[in-house]
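A note from the maintainers: we've had questions about how concatenated examples are separated. There is no special marker in the raw files; a new sequence line simply starts the next protein. For clarity in this README we add a label.
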Amino acid sequence: MPRSASIPLPEMHAFRSVCLALAAAAAAPAMPAAASPELARARLCTSCHPAQGKLVGPGFREIAARYAGQHDAAARLADKIRAGGAGAWGVVPMPANPKVTPQEARQLADWVLATK
């Protein structure tokens, strides 16, 4: 059998480092996405809520303005994101969104409330 070519030591260390980094990333628990427009789109919030104005539901800016200055706004809004609601913004009810985790709901609520 022919002898295989050896890999120079610096390249071997670099390769090993990449392999270890990939293994560590694969083994790490998945982190929830930070609240952002991307998370709002992924959880279908933007299907009904635009940044401003009204689509089916109120825009994020209008929601932020209504809840401004309320000490429990983030917790109340996070609950509403998961459980849904009716009557606060008109006759169209907001359906429950149980696929949104409590942590994601709080991240989304914080993000919406920071919308200017």
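[label: protein 2]
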Amino acid sequence: MVKISICENKYLLTEKYILATISSAKRFHSRESIGDVKIERNMNRKKLLIRLTLGALQNVSFKDMINLIKGFGFEVKNVRGSHHVFTHVDIPELLNLQEVRGEAKPYQIRQLLKLVEKYNLRLEDEQ
């Protein structure tokens, strides 16, 4: 159930308006806050992988990228500032990922794809 509060200017938001706003926000933002209602959307790992292999490396949500990396069996080694360093038990190389305005850097996405291909990594099932 959604809590509806009356704003300072006395506008009362109807449930229909809130649902329309939420569905609109889901289409354009990976994370949005409307009053007390928080919207979070995670892209399916397989869909994201297909998108990336087709070359669409721009505008990839950092959270979706973390989810994909963990899906390949990587674990966070450490975080220093915006740098997230990941390790994999079967791979001697480290993977670095940076968040810039909520998105992952395209060249680092390419590095992940090269590691996946080089070491023939398989995507684990969704949680």
